[in-house]
């Protein structure tokens, strides 16, 4: 489909975060030994991601790899397996240096305080030095004891999913949330970390420009200095996909919210991200991780790992039964199993070029000289589809860089989808939802 046709369907298609998407991954013809895979990689500026695939509830829009309300003994056994995999990866990677750490999910704050402390102890074995660290929490599961553990481990960014402060809007997407608990949690966060992010969603049932602005104002008043504004997507196998349709007023809400957030002094970084945080709040003197160039090490069944030539992870699932089965299978693996990649996507040179382009543009700008130095060709000849993006006014081509326009920023999800290769799109289309 041409870009002009995609744009006529609206400014939204599906979330564009990484490339290629996990639904393009397949069982590898032969398991790949991780020690050999990582041996030729630059391991001095790695991103470490610890996955906690548990939540207290399943929101109607959620398709994350997460199990709802597991029993405490399952969580403890999960941490046992996580520690074993971390030990294997330490051996595989050594010597190495981690530049960034993220603890995500699911909802890491679902863990009890002792379990959370153990999770950070596992992370400490992989990255003993203080580094910029981010963790995801929810209003219902964060408390003073858990925040104290985060501060003890020098967490620099805490991200809380709130989505809306209006119960009629959150209940419309099957999210049970008490506004008083949100306020309590945000007040606790105010001095807990240098960066305090809040996630909000636009396009919720019953939401208006006024209520969206009020949600923004209230979380900012309670101390949020970073905002992620997400469009509501209804995706296969989620609760909403079974019984919901809606008029598409997301672009109207986005433009209103974007203007309002800017008037509050926030700087727009990407389609979703707005920040007032200090540029060095996460430690500007430490190694800088760039997802286009550096490796990611994922620990846990839903975590992706990236090397130059191979992206790998446990096979993706959305349905609760499939997720439970995959978590159980992952926990039963031996140390030898943890040392092999069995499911992933092999990146050709052309795919690596597309990945570099897409991830750079999603951040707003691509350095043409850096691209040419890395791939020995100009980006416009490497990805001919860019001509359509330029013609449609989504991208500006300057001699030294490519930049998203204002229109390009608001349609970044469509652009990210359009710039995928035919191979990746075909693999995603053939993915059998589980």
The CATH superfamily of the largest domain is Aldolase class I
Strand order of the largest sheet: 10-11-9-8-7-6-5-2-12
Q: Helix segment count?
A: 18
CATH architecture group name of the largest domain: Alpha-Beta Barrel
Percent helix: 25-40%
Structural class: alpha/beta
What does the average pLDDT come to?
91
Low-confidence stretches: none
Q: Give the percentage of residues in beta strands.
A: 15-25%
Q: Briefly, what CATH class of the largest domain?
A: Alpha Beta
Q: What about the largest sheet?
A: 9 strands, mixed
Radius of gyration: 21 Å
State the separation between the terminal residues, measured CA to CA.
26 Å
CATH topology of the largest domain: TIM Barrel
Instruction: Please tally the β strands and state the result.
Output: 18
Shape: globular
In short:
With 434 residues, this protein is α/β, with parallel strands linked by helices.
Question: What this model shows, in words?
Answer:
This protein is α/β, with parallel strands linked by helices and 434 residues long. The chain folds into 2 domains: 23-275, Alpha-Beta Barrel (TIM Barrel), CATH 3.20.20; 349-430, Orthogonal Bundle (Arc Repressor Mutant, subunit A), CATH 1.10.10.920. The protein has 18 helices and 18 strands. The chain has helices spanning 3-8, 34-39, 72-93, 113-126, 144-152, 167-171, 179-189, 209-221, 250-263, 320-331, 335-338, 349-362, 368-375, 379-382, 386-391, 406-410, 412-418, 422-430, and strands at 26-33, 46-52, 54-55, 67-68, 98-105, 133-137, 157-163, 195-202, 226-231, 267-268, 273-275, 296-299, 305-306, 310-312, 340-346, 365-367, 395-397, 401-404. The strands form 4 sheets. It has a 9-stranded mixed sheet with strand order 10-11-9-8-7-6-5-2-12. Strands 1-15-14-13 form a 4-stranded antiparallel sheet. Helix 3 packs parallel to helix 4 (113-126), helix 4 (113-126) runs parallel beside helix 5 and helix 12 (349-362) runs antiparallel to helix 17. The radius of gyration is 21 Å and the shape is globular.
